[in-house]
Specification:
833 residues; single chain; alpha+beta; 27 helices
């Protein structure tokens, strides 16, 4: 028995045994409750980073813990393998994206196995496998048949660096979410998914997600951005068509002093068509300058605008109002046109003050603090709350709420407006003009138009021999063998779609495929999905709150409506872990602050890497990397090794029995109490709160208690049965965190079956009841009473109980307490002035 834990030999030994025995393979087992534990699968970038290690270590603890608690646990792993990084890396290195991707997968798979993760590797797949993207294409056809996939020409977000289109969700502050390049606007024919058809359900069903972090639900709620209001059409002078605006404050319509259009609004050019005057020139220059700015840039910059020289008419007041173009109005929201109500919108007030537009007060608060008349010349701040209408014709005197309802009825009756619901959410643009993605399964026929590829012809294979150097269009368009095909409907020559699908399409349904990854007749076996899903615990970064999680929820609802799954939400519980930082900054290659997991595993072992990453911070918080913390966790595992091997050496009899005294009184009772207190705390911390750091801290304290016992109680008086119980239950408690060490110690303790197949230890409630003792209560050194307390009650508890005792209160009434002296186990003396 070695005094020092040889982690290299032990980890290699058990990783080999686990793989050979198929320890983590799972199948359908109705006799046990199921638990589907899933971490967001990785993009195969080449090497794991510490963020990966944290994500997967968290999931591995959860999976192992629930296995030990009697659940049939599904814990799979796969690869989100399509996408621009592989294509860009392949271009830079002169290799094929497929070769680059599969080589990276092999590396990362080896790293994950080296960390001892409990994955069912028999379920592994990559989204770039034809066997997988065949079903991605099948799901595209499902959405197409259900009227949820359509093609249209539209202004799109174009990343000049990635040379591809981006969905709205992939543009962050006007820049590409991946490469950070400034995004431009282009008009292109593109494929969209009608996610807006599910906007209300996506919003409403957030109420079902009680196991999600509140901040994620709020992020999704804000992204969907539902608002109820009224659409009102303002006639435009000398034009047949008017300008329709959406407003949530119809009660302020009599206060409109201008209409403002987004620079990209199609009506802008029509209003100045054929004009060469100075205003028209300014409008065109203004629109060009703002065309490629992002949403945040436009809304945070100083309000700017130019008048078009055209006028509209307020349909309720009859007043003539100028039409402007301004930077703070966005085409993506509402109708791309807003009414300017300076007295009751701070943004509008700033705009009006800058350009000399009138300010009309039409809503007054109950305290009448705004001027009686309509002129708001002295207003310093807009009144944006509800109130009572004034200067509003027949609506004056109504409350804001009553006026909104009445105006909505009136504009509807007159045919100049209607009640409406507006969303920030826009349809999901899925077309990408790059090579490394799943081909869109449609063809274009001059006779038949758009024709979906029949299911029996799937997959539409991505050809290998393609010049994928980006030139601004799809590389597939340059491969004639791919493009030329026959029309599935009429048999005439046709052309394949040459755009590929957004990689978020592939990751929006992968969790279904894990239930039956080798199914050849459907994207998934419906019985297996009904058994395993929804995912019980999903783990991943908060950066996916809008993109991946929203798309996954959309897909699940579509599949539910198609009768393919019996549930409407894919992930019951969600944990979003924090980042791993160094020097206060997130680890990244560009900052040069990367810590390699391979180096840590090589120097200290996989169990040390896992233990530190779980111990250093609560999982939802950022974790600051510490070399000293890693070394400390390594020393702790060495202490555990010496403790357990020492117990085995000292108390295991040659014939396999256990020696030692029958019991040793107070010290043994205290140690047993500490053991069962730790069992309860670790179980509660994992099950209820995922507080792995406090769970590990409790185990560390238990180890300290065990060492104190071993060092303070003579060996011949030590309780061998208690120490065996401690060694076994300590090993079980550590099994989810340090699986290799626990497996080795479990075998050393004489067990043949894996520690990871054992039941989680149960605590004895009776053992948690501490011995009670009587302490003396004194006031100024004189005995005034006695108090029965737990033997291990802390000083704070003794002081609090003494001051609350009726006899102590009687002798201190009216006096100032100078100090309280506590002698644990004996007395409390209250000293007065």
């Amino acid at each position: 028995m070695e005094d020092r834990y040889d982690f290299r030999a032990v980890e290699a030994k058990w990783q080999g045994r686990w793989e050979a025995s198929g320890l983590y393979s799972r199948g359908h087992d109705p006799s046990r409750p199921k638990f589907y534990c899933l971490e967001m699968f990785p993009y195969p970038s080449g090497n794991l980073h510490m963020g990966h290690v944290r994500n997967y270590s968290i999931g591995d603890v959860v999976a192992r813990f629930y296995t030990m608690n009697g659940y049939n646990v599904l814990h799979p792993m796969g690869w989100d393998a399509f996408g621009l990084p592989a294509e860009n890396a392949a271009i830079q290195r002169g290799v094929h994206p497929a070769d680059w991707t599969y080589a990276n997968i092999a590396t990362m798979r080896s790293q994950l196995k080296g960390l001892g993760m409990s994955y069912d590797w028999g379920r592994e797949f990559a989204t770039c496998d034809p066997e997988y993207y065949r079903w991605t294409q099948w799901l595209f056809l499902l959405l197409y048949r259900r009227g949820l996939a359509y093609r249209k020409k539209a202004p799109v977000n174009w990343c000049p660096s990635c040379t591809t289109v981006l969905a709205n969700e992939q543009v962050i502050d006007g820049a590409c979410w991946r490469c950070k390049s400034q995004v431009e606007k282009r008009d292109l024919e593109q494929w969209f998914f009608r996610i807006t058809a599910y906007a209300d359900r996506l919003l409403r069903d957030l109420e079902l997600l009680g196991g999600w972090p509140e901040k994620v639900r709020v992020m999704q709620q804000n992204w969907i951005g539902r608002s109820e209001g009224v659409e009102i059409t303002f006639p435009v002078e000398a034009r047949r068509e008017g300008i329709t605006v959406f407003t949530t404050r119809a009660d302020t319509v009599f206060g409109v002093t201008a209409l403002v259009l987004a620079p990209e609004h199609p009506l802008v050019e029509e209003l100045i068509a054929g004009r060469g005057d100075e205003l028209a020139v300014q409008v065109r220059a203004f629109a060009r300058r703002l065309a490629d700015l992002g949403e945040r840039e436009r809304t945070e910059m100083e309000k700017e605008g130019v008048p078009t020289g055209a006028y509209a008419v307020n349909p309720l007041s009859g007043e003539r109002v100028p039409i402007w173009v301004a930077n703070y109005v966005l085409m993506e929201y509402g109708t791309g046109a807003v009414m300017v109500v300076p007295a009751h919108d701070q943004r509008d007030l700033e705009f009006a003050r800058k350009y000399g537009l009138p300010v009309k007060v039409v809503v007054r608060p109950a305290d009448a603090s705004l001027p009686e008349g309509p002129a708001g010349d002295g207003l310093q701040e807009a009144f944006e709350d509800d109130g009572v209408l004034v200067n509003s014709g027949p609506y004056s005197g109504l409350s804001s709420a009553a006026a909104r309802e009445q105006i909505a009825r009136d504009v509807t009756a007159r045919g100049i407006g209607r009640k409406a619901v507006n969303y920030r959410l826009r349809d999901w643009l899925i077309s990408r003009q790059r090579y490394w993605g799943a081909p869109i399964p449609v063809v274009y026929c001059d006779a038949c138009g758009i024709v979906p590829v029949p299911e029996e012809r799937l997959p539409v294979l991505l050809p290998r021999q393609v010049d994928f150097t980006p030139t601004g269009g799809s590389p597939l368009a340059r491969n004639e063998d791919f493009v030329r095909t026959d029309c599935p409907s009429c048999g005439r020559p046709a052309r394949r779609e040459t755009d590929t699908m957004d990689t978020f399409m592939c990751s929006s349904w992968y969790y279904f495929r894990f239930a039956s990854p080798r199914c050849e007749t459907a994207p998934f076996d419906r019985d297996e999905v009904a058994y395993w899903l929804p995912v019980d615990q999903y783990i991943g970064g908060v950066e996916h709150a809008v993109l991946h999680l929203l798309y996954s929820r959309f897909f699940t609802k579509v599949l539910y409506d198609a009768g393919l799954v019996p549930f409407v939400e894919p992930f019951t519980n969600l944990l979003t872990q924090g980042m791993v930082t160094l020097g206060g900054a997130a680890m990244s290659k560009s900052r040069g602050n990367i810590v390699s997991p391979d180096d840590i595993v090589r120097r200290y072992g996989a169990d040390t890497a896992r233990l530190f990453i779980l111990f250093a911070a609560p999982p939802e918080k950022d974790l600051e990397w510490s070399d000293q913390g890693v070394e400390g966790c390594h020393r702790f595992l060495q202490r555990v090794w010496r403790l357990v091997t020492g117990i085995v050496r000292d108390f295991a009899a040659p014939v396999g029995g256990w020696g030692g005294a029958a019991g040793d009184g107070t010290a043994g009772t205290a140690l047993r109490r500490a053991l069962h207190r730790t069992i309860k705390k670790v179980g509660d911390d994992i099950r209820e709160r995922f507080n792995f750091n406090t769970a590990i801290s409790a185990v560390m304290e238990l180890v300290n208690e065990a060492y104190r016992y071993r060092e303070s109680v003579p060996r011949q008086e030590q309780d061998g049965a208690l120490l065996r119980e401690l060694a076994e239950k300590l090993t079980l408690l550590l099994a989810p965190f340090a699986p290799h060490l626990a497996e080795e110690l479990w075998e050393m303790l004489g067990h043949r079956e894996s520690v990871h197949l054992q039941a989680w230890p149960a605590y004895d409630p009776a053992a948690l009841v501490a011995e009670r003792i009587t302490i003396v209560l004194q006031v100024d050194g004189k005995v005034r009473g006695r108090l029965e307390v737990e033997a291990d009650a802390p000083r704070e508890r003794l002081e609090e109980a003494a001051l609350a005792h009726e006899r102590v209160r009687a002798f201190t009434r009216g006096r100032e307490i100078a100090q309280v002296v506590v002698v644990p186990g004996r007395l409390v003396n209250v000293v007065t002035r």
